[in-house]
Amino acid sequence: MQSKKNVIVIGAGPVGLAAAAHLMQQGQTPIVLERGDNVGHAMAQWAHVRVFTPWKYLIDTAVETLLKATDWQMPDAEGIPLAGEIVDQYLVPAATKTALATHIRYGANVIAITKTGHSKLSSHQRETADYTVQYRSTDGDVHRLRGDAVIDASGTWFKPNPIGLDGLPVPGEIENAAHITYGIPDVLGKHRHRYQGQHTLVVGGGHSAINVVLDLLKLEGSDSPSHIYWGLRGANLQKLLGGGEQDALPARGALGLAAKDAIESGRLTLLTSMQVNSVSTSAERLVVNLQTREGDGPLAVDQIIVATGFRPDLSITGELRLSLDSTVEAPAALAPLIDPNLHSCGTVMPHGADVLSHLDGDFYVVGMKSYGRAPTFLMMTGYEQVRSIAAALAGDAEAANRLQLTLPETGVCNADYGDAAVACCAEPEQQTSCCG
């Protein structure tokens, strides 16, 4: 296999920087395109959230090698950091103190990837054509960059799932966007003013929703006359509330104890088997037309938080020939390994370049985006993905196929209030496979 010398990496998050570091170890030249003005731009959006995984599983070996040549200090290996701490204590030093610094372009928002001189329909000499990546800089100008290979580590954070059970925005959702938030707002911090004293509906049944509900309960328990509604697409309350202090998932157990107390005190209303049909406004409040197991009808609230997971942005690869599973939207060979109905993050088999390959060779999607709509991604898995891919692009097929990741049997899927975007194991809702 011939070595690929110039490799474009999209995204300067943990997996993107790891890809660049492994490429450098293999004697290749990475060019990292980051849409934000700093590394970890997406993680910074949920900096207040504590992940599932301890530090010892969050540091990539190739990045660590680069950092050890500087004055960087390794955080406590057993500590479980906030997302913001991962950015500040790991990603920023890697991007500023090491040789990675000269390989990153900030404010570069990728809008398209194609085979140079070839549309999706063009087959003549397609296999030997390199790649062209089109990106828009912060000044609005559009640039083109050519590379021998492309690694897409852009993640899924900026493509949240809408409210609709059918995967579409419900009527009125877009029109009332000013009162609807997606993901995990900092309820106890910078977004406190938005939710203090407000009646809030949280939609979603995974650990993103768990974070939000627990924080709203703390906020409501201070001095706020608000009320919290938690809408679940499923109806299995035992699965949601867990086993309290004896629960194998501490986040679920903590939620169960807090939720039971809140329900008994009337501070939290659970709405199960919920389907939202529309959102409108009346007297400066949102009116949510919904159906639930507890009854149907309008619900008046001030704010809605949608925590129903994320999906990959496939628009940038419209001119590429990909091999994607039609359901999960992950590489076809990977999809059966990550089906959230069958796997948690600890049971997904390590995999590398061969599983992540597409019809257009030397193009790979890695990290959270490689899992499509499945929430079972684990950071360590992403690091192994890019190690294998870097070896494959360097022409070392033996190293690419020699998987070097051994997942711990316990621990990495259990922690205080984590998020699927980094450490997985959000419980999938019964009707979908995309909930986070």
Please work out how many helical segments DSSP would assign.
11
Mean pLDDT level: 87
Give the SSE string.
EHEHHEEEEEEHEHEHHEEEEEHHEHH
Q: Give the low-pLDDT segments.
A: 410-436
Quickly count the domains.
2
Secondary structure elements and pairings:
Blueprint: E1 6-10, H1 14-25, E2 29-34, H2 61-68, H3 83-97, E3 104-106, E4 109-115, E5 131-136, E6 142-147, E7 149-152, E8 180-182, H4 192-195, E9 200-203, H5 207-220, E10 228-231, H6 237-241, H7 250-265, E11 268-271, E12 275-282, E13 285-292, E14 295-301, E15 303-306, H8 335-338, H9 353-356, E16 363-365, H10 379-393, H11 397-401
Parallel strand pairs: 1-2, 1-7, 2-3, 7-16, 8-15, 9-10, 9-15, 10-11
Antiparallel strand pairs: 4-5, 5-6, 12-13, 13-14
Helix pairs in contact: 1-2, 1-10, 5-7
